[in-house]
Structure formats: structure tokens, C-alpha cells
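User: I'm putting together a teaching handout on how multi-component assemblies are represented. Below are the sequence lines for each component of a complex, exactly as they appear in our records. Could you produce the 3D structure of the whole assembly as C-alpha cells, so the students can see both representations side by side? Please keep the chain order the same as the input.
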Amino acid sequence: MSPVRPSNRAAAVFVVRCLRKAGFEALLAGGCVRDMLLKRRAKDYDVATSARPEQILPLFRRTLEIGAKFGVVMVLVKQCQVEVATFRTESGYADGRHPDQVRFSCAAEDASRRDFTVNGMFYDPIRRKVIDFVDGQRDLGRKILRTIGDPDRRFEEDYLRMLRAVRFTAHLGFALEPAAWAAITRHADKIARISGERIAAELEAILTHPARAVGARLLVESSLCAAVFPGLDPAGANRGVTVLSAFRRRISFPLALAALFAEAPAESALSQCEFLKLSRDNIRHLAWLLEHRGRLLDARMGLAPLKRLLVSPYFRDLFDLQRAILRSQSLPQTPLNILQRRIGALKGVDLAPKPLLNGHDILALGAAPGPMVGRIAEDLYVAQLSDQIHTPHQARRFVQNWLDRNNSRKSS
Ligand code: ATP
Ligand code: MG
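Assistant: Of course. Below is the structure of the complete assembly, with chains in the same order as your input.
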């Protein structure tokens, strides 16, 4: 079975037509309308409708009732998953995270529960008309990110919107409306009430994007960064932002975090990130980068350590991190350029060859059972990686010399 993909425009328009045919109001909604007006490619196309979940479900062959209680149904059209949501209002956000109540309503009310004016528009794909109850088009034209309604109240309903504000401001290249900015600076410390996973998803979107310099700066200046990472002091955070700003393209999330914590001890950085509930892979990736920071400054490091770094799947990120750190300090890239030449010369070389001898072989040559075998195996492998020995015969000679040198050959 082919994987399910986010909705594309054709799939969403098909869903709109089906709902219309059944007598309901149905429109494209939210981010896809904004992106269409900005002539950007939308991530996905969502549908909003007057039909209730129990009226939507029988109209389509394949559906998923993921959030039917809140008025959200997934419709599968070919391989695409289209989110279809009943027009609704939300109220009573007592916890600053989730609405206590959802009430089905009309398009105008549905627009006003959305976060920002540019995200609050609808589009009728059949009449080719934008339906805008919130002056979203005006703000798009002026390149302003503005909350729908009073910013203090809207952020208090759902503190995650503060991070969303930073994300959209940076990604769209807009200005954040001053009242929204002031409200964020007032409420920043409450971001910690949102779950680590949801914060992580927003941080990932902000920090991995090419516009990360703007986003990261907003995070620090608003104190959102300090609220999420209380152990990262302001000077360290500012240094982190300059490192983050030195990358050119999209980067991985662990690399972005390693850059933000470029000045912090590895242990402290990892403990600050615990709150984000990162995946095991991401933690391993981040820990490796933090642990190996600075290693590439030694352009003349031995061949064995170089090969060991090179076999890591995170090597490219380590290289890019070091390049960004040097760039952020206006230091020359000389060590990295030298390393790059050395790495180029290793093309086609097996970086992690099979060891020439195993533990049994080493014991058979007279090593004492126990930790000594591991030490010899390690020294032998370093010699092998360093191109000092190439054959089992040379390896046996190496072990014999090692044992002689250490004067601990087992008496037979
Ligand atoms: P993206 O292109 O990143 O997907 P988007 O605008 O589509 O951006 P989504 O998170 O996919 O954002 O949400 C879809 C729409 O739902 C938004 O455009 C907005 O109208 C509304 N929305 C999403 N999250 C919130 C929220 N926390 N508060 C209010 N409205 C929200
Ligand atoms: Mg979206």
C-alpha cells in the first residue's frame, strides 16, 4: 500500500464538491488560503464545512474519525488525507491549552476562533472567491501578522500561539504587529505550561527553516527562549543565535539545538532539552554533536580518529556546526578546508574495515584473558585504521610486539 500523503488541492476540491452536492457549505480554509494568496506552495489543504461529522462520514468511502468529537474528520481521497472540520467556535480555555467547549457554528464564527488574520480566511474553489471575515487580505498585503481579536486574550487561550506567532512571522517574512509582540513579551513565561512535544514541534519548525535567524532572535528577545530553556543564560543564547544565523540552508533539528547551545556544556544542554521529549534518535544525534564539538579544529588529527568521526551518520552536521561556529566568530575556516582535502583523499577507502584479528586470535597469541585483550584489540584497530598494518601477518607481529613491550606475555 502506498503511504498516505497530505492533502493536495485536487483532493480537497473533490471533497468540497461532494459536500456541496449534498447541500452543505464547504470551503478551503486556513493556511492553504494564505499560501495560495501569497503564491506559495501550501503544505496541505484543509476543508471547513457546515456539515457535522455524522453528516460527513456517510458521504465518503474511506474516512477516519480522529477528532469527530471536536468536529474533525479525515477523508481519504486516493492517497491523500484531507482534514474536514465542521465550522465551530471554541471557548473556555481554562488551562491555556485546550478549549473546554466546542460548539458547531458558521463560517464567520469559525474564522474568529483561528489564531492570526492571515490564517483566518476561506476560499471557495468553485466560485473562485476569497471569503475574508477578519481582514486577512489587508494584513497579507501589508505583511503584518496580527491576532484575530485582542492579543492578550488570544494568547491566554492557548499559549502555543506565541510560538506560532514567531514561526509565521519568520517564515512569511512579515512584521509582528506591535500589540501582539507586547502581549508575547508579557506572557512568555507561560509557554512552559504547554507540553514539551508541542513546543518541540514549533521550535523545530522555527530553527530548522532558512529564516531561523529571524525566528531565533524573536525567541530570545521575547524571553520565550528563556522560558523554555531556563538554564541557557542570555549571553549564551545570544551567542547561539549568531551561530544559528551562520547556516545557509535548512538544517536538522539536533544540529539547530547544538548550535543554540554552542556555548553551553554538553550535559547542561542535554538536560535543558529533556523537557522537549525528543526522540531517542534526536537525543543521540544532539549528544554526539555536543560531545564532538571542537574536534574538527584539529585538522591534523590522526587518520584513525578522523575515520571514526567520518563513519558517524552525524559527521556532516558536525562539520556544518563547526563551520557555523567559526563563521559566527569571524574566524578563518582553514582547519575545515584542510580536513575537507584530507577527507576527499579518502574517497573509496573502507572507513570501518573488519578488524584483522579477533579476540580469540589475540588470546591465542598469548594475551592474558581479561581487559588486556580489549586494549590490544583497540590499539591494533587504531594501527589498522592508521594504515600502519594491512595484513593478518602484520597484525600478529603487532600483537607480539605489544606483549613484549608490556612484558606480560603469558608463560606457556
Ligand atoms: P502550515 O503551513 O505550517 O501548515 P497552517 O496555517 O496550515 O500552517 P496549521 O497548524 O496546519 O497551520 O493549522 C491550520 C489552521 O488552523 C491555521 O491556519 C489556523 O487557522 C488554525 N489553527 C491552528 N492552530 C491553531 C491554534 N493554536 N489556535 C488557533 N487557530 C489555530
Ligand atoms: Mg497546515
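A couple of points students might notice: The domain at 1-134 is CATH 3.30.460.10 (Beta Polymerase; domain 2). The chain has a mean pLDDT of 95.
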